[in-house]
Amino acid sequence: MSSDALAHWIENSFIAHAMAASVWVYPVVETLHMISIVVLVGTAAMFDFRLLGWRLTNMPVAELASQLRPWIRVGIVGILMTGPLLFASDPDRYLDNFYFRLKMTFLLSTILFDLFVVRRLRSPHSTAGAAAQRFAGGFSLLLWAGIVAGGRGIGVF
Amino acid sequence: MSILEICQWLQETPPGRMVREGYWGYGIPQMVHLGSMALFGGAVVLDDLRLLGAIRKPAFRELSAQLVAVKWVGFLLAGSSGLLLFMSDATRFYKNPAFLIKTGLLLLIALNAWIFRSVVYKDVRAWDNAASAPAGAKIVAVVSLFLWICVIAASRAIGFTLSDT
Fold this sequence. Notes:
The complex is a heterodimer of chains A (157) and B (165). Helices cover 83% and strands 0% of the residues of chain A. Chain A has seven helices and no strands. In chain A, helix 3 (25-52) packs antiparallel against helix 4 (61-89), helix 3 (25-52) runs antiparallel to helix 7 (130-156) and helix 6 runs antiparallel to helix 7 (130-156). Chain B has helices spanning 3-12, 14-21, 23-51, 60-88, 90-93, 97-118, 124-127, 135-161. Chain A binds chain B through residues 27, 30-31, 34-35, 37-39, 41-43, 45-46, 49, 54-56, 58-59, 63, 67-68, 70-71, 145, 148-149, 151-153, 155-157, and chain B through 23, 26-27, 30-31, 33-35, 37-39, 41-43, 45-46, 49, 54-58, 62-63, 66-67, 69-70, 148-149, 152-153, 155-157, 159-160.
């Protein structure tokens, strides 16, 4: 299935029709998307600041991770419920948008970096030194900044 | 000098023109505004969740003290980028209902924080290490979370309504 055919299929799906049902649907979904961003990026950034050795250094990394985990999950669930709806409202526009592609690239990089690097640092059995933690925290913050900048770019440019 | 005249003057200043007319002039303050809002809002949300007992460690005062610097960074960046965005189109912002509601909500957030500091926080030693805070603190936390949701809704509404005003 080509991306054009995929876009066409999504455009005609019931989700796209629901998104177009009222002028209120899109702004409300976008607002819920932003609320999820504050919860997710706010908590994730705090964890990265800990890895950087800047904030909450009195708390072990693994313990902070376990305290923040439920709220990071709340943010992720909110993003997953709203982002695809926004995309489905006009797939062609998003697929053609440079900043959307940029955001998705940063998003994929963040997921891979988390799965393969940060997850090890979060483990209570992690033996990673401060230098590795600092690098991971700084790099993760840059990736988040890319996601946010790309996201805003979709609407602005 | 009326408010309208101040707004007219603001949008013809060099920063006002730069943000309105430059390709990146508008985009970069928007990106900074969203990112710093997530930092500032996210730090406040963490405080609120700690008060509600949804996050249990560290102790409230320790968490709050650690978050102060993050809040300042977020607040200063969100404030300065927000001011630049306002300057770019001041005469339209000042009569946009969503912008006025957002400004009112931000003042309510400041008032709520002041009430917290001057009333609830006074006996923080008694509940600092407890899993969750007393009822007064929880009310402040719920009000704070509600106001933040409203601020985000009003912010998004500015983007959808500015062209009509």
